[in-house]
Amino acid sequence: xxxxxxxxxxxxxxxxxxxxxxxxxxxxxxxxxxxxxxxxxxxxxxxxxxxxxxxxxxxxxxxxxxxxxxxxxxxxxxxxxxxxxxxxxxxxxxxxxxxxxxxxxxxxxxxxxxxxxxxxxxxxxxxxxxxxxxxxxxxxxxxxxxxxxxxxxxxxxxxxxxxxxxxxxxxxxxxxxxxxxxxxxxxxxxxxxxxxxxxxxxxxxxxxxxxxxxxxxxxxxxxxxxxxxxxxxxxxxxxxxxxxxxxxxxxxxxxxxxxxxxxxxxxxxxxxxxxxxxxxxxxxxxxxxxxxxxxxxxxxxxxxxxxxxxxxxxxxxxxxxxxxxxxxxxxxxxxxxxxxxxxxxxxxxxxxxxxxxxxxxxxxxxxxxxxxxxxxxxxxxxxxxxxxxxxxxxxxxxxxxxxxxxxxxxxxxxxxxxxxxxxxxxxxxxxxxxxxxxxxxxxxxxxxxxxxxxxxxxxxxxxxxxxxxxxxxxxxxxxxx
Amino acid sequence: xxxxxxxxxxxxxxxxxxxxxxxxxxxxxxxxxxxxxxxxxxxxxxxxxxxxxxxxxxxxxxxxxxxxxxxxxxxxxxxxxxxxxxxxxxxxxxxxxxxxxxxxxxxxxxxxxxxxxxxxxxxxxxxxxxxxxxxxxxxxxxxxxxxxxxxxxxxxxxxxxxxxxxxxxxxxxxxxxxxxxxxxxxxxxxxxxxxxxxxxxxxxxxxxxxxxxxxxxxxxxxxxxxxxxxxxxxxxxxxxxxxxxxxxxxxxx
Lengths: 481, 253
Ligand SMILES: Nc1ncnc2c1ncn2[C@@H]1O[C@H](COP(=O)(O)OP(=O)(O)OP(=O)(O)O)[C@@H](O)[C@H]1O
Ligand SMILES: [Mg+2]
What we know:
Chain A has helices spanning about 5-10, 35-45, 50-65, 105-110, 115-125, 140-145, 155-160, 160-170, 180-185, 430-435, 440-450, 455, 460-475; strands spanning about 25-30, 85-90, 125-130, 135-140, 150-155, 190-195, 205-210, 220-225, 230-240, 250, 255-260, 265-270, 285-295, 300-305, 310-315, 315-320, 325-335, 340-350, 355-365, 370-380, 385-395, 400-410, 415-425. Chain A has 13 helices and 23 strands. Chain B has helices at about 40-50, 70-75, 95-110, 115-130, 135-140, 150-160, 180-190, 205-210, 230-240, 245-250, and strands spanning about 1-10, 15-25, 30-35, 55-60, 65, 80-85, 90-95, 140, 165-170, 195-200, 215-220, 225-230. In chain B, helix 4 packs across helix 6 (about 150-160) and helix 6 packs parallel to helix 7.
């Protein structure tokens, strides 16, 4: 094997940059799951009765379900009784002022280069930081409140806006949806809630940085975003996680609702601990993300840059219910070492003149496995639906795998569907060409990969795109990545 | 500046270069000619550091350094530039981005300050004129969808921006129309200087009318079988390479 490939592998074997554990004291439930645990959880969170009932219904349903096994991923059986279903920072910090936030937490953010101060000053981004399971800092709230925008933790929303929660929670991803979403419905601990009122354009990007921290604590986030008629919001979700030895389950649910003429842009940079170069440790990321374009002319865009997790199982989807509604999915998924990703999207066309676009870039390095799984479904009454899909795979080295599983289910003859797929390798001649111009192999790979993903990056908000590019280079240092 | 001593190189066990000797001083222009498959590009790639070629014997001294021990990127940073016979496409990476990154890497290595976007664009503009290149090619992805001639011109633009000490142009003239040939040649001529050496690999005497070499060498079956001045190129044009078979035997004996 040539030196270049060896170099690539060397780069790929660099340590996870963000692997560290911060030692904020955590209060956790003992491991295990039963009705009592759920009652306790609901009680700690002072939830109204309807919430507890919903959780219990979900739990009972979950007991009847089996873990799915159709995805192209492999992992040892998860012992759901070995997981602790609640963990919260002990000192509950006040939310007005950063001075009151645990300094250890602030240091953690600084290590990640995403300090709240910086975020506030630099970008005018309102940050709702989720640390383990409880929100610890929320900023810019008052400014948003003036516009009638609600941006708060899910726990707050359940207490302060129960009517909205009751109306929309589970309306896109029902508690019976799938094994992981059902589990989430029973035990979700916290998450973010956003409501943009009629005709309001949210003036800033809303952002949440998720962290998984306390050892052995399953993380069950629940996010709900509602854009009322004519509203617009751009939401950023980003995360990094500390180094861990044991696998951590993460089963989040994200629901988006766009009413008439509303638009939601949801961007994710996901960088959870992928495990070490031997495939030990790492996060299991089994996420259900779905958006409903309920109103006419509504639009939902998912943009994701996935570099982390040992296993990713994730299909952000759009239900195009309203006439003329639009769904978009832009994805970069990087796998390295022993990472496995089975990700993609579903575009379900139900209204007339609905359109969807899918751009997926899979990059595999090391011994990793990267699968794209995408479904385009056009129901009978969805006249004049259009879909364009492009699924590209890039291989780095010759021990990794890339797979594409497109599913088409077309029930209306007026549909126009285009599907393109390519597989390519980073050429040694490309690397050599850049080397010859004075650029190191590491930077060359970063450059080539970033070029390859350009179509997706341009969908990300500016600061996020820069972060994503850096992240990609870092991930490829360990994959290439 | 450059001294190649008895270089042998092979690929996949097949020996391509069979003992090359060549000395190039600063300020000189050397032309290398020779039939297809004789090893011209191999020599160029070996000098640039392509790992696929295994150097089995010999050494290369470049500015008092052991060239073969340097990585390809360090060779570039030390001032070696190769204009590729077949320039590579890099989708999604803009030409400008590549050039800026490359220039700043080279400057950093040499202890110079990096150029910011404004300074770089000013420099780039002036260099664009040198090769009369269209602005629109700058924002396009590196060589992607470029015509053959545009690719070659782009190589010369890169050379003009990076200002190498030793430039190796591998058949930069092939694929160029008559006007482009003149433009590229005049671009190269403007880069000729006291402290810069240029090696041009070509099949055509025509180019050497524009870029007048100090020396012409004939590479034949992995060896330089004849060296001379620019008249040698004319002689080759007239007689082809066949008559050199005898020369080759002379050299071998
Ligand atoms: N990767 C490779 N694998 C096998 N043989 C190779 C490889 N690269 C080059 N060669 C062989 O080495 C020999 C010299 O090739 P090279 O490209 O150096 O010739 P050249 O003199 O540049 O020819 P041309 O004038 O056609 O450009 C050829 O016979 C070629 O087939
Ligand atoms: Mg050649």
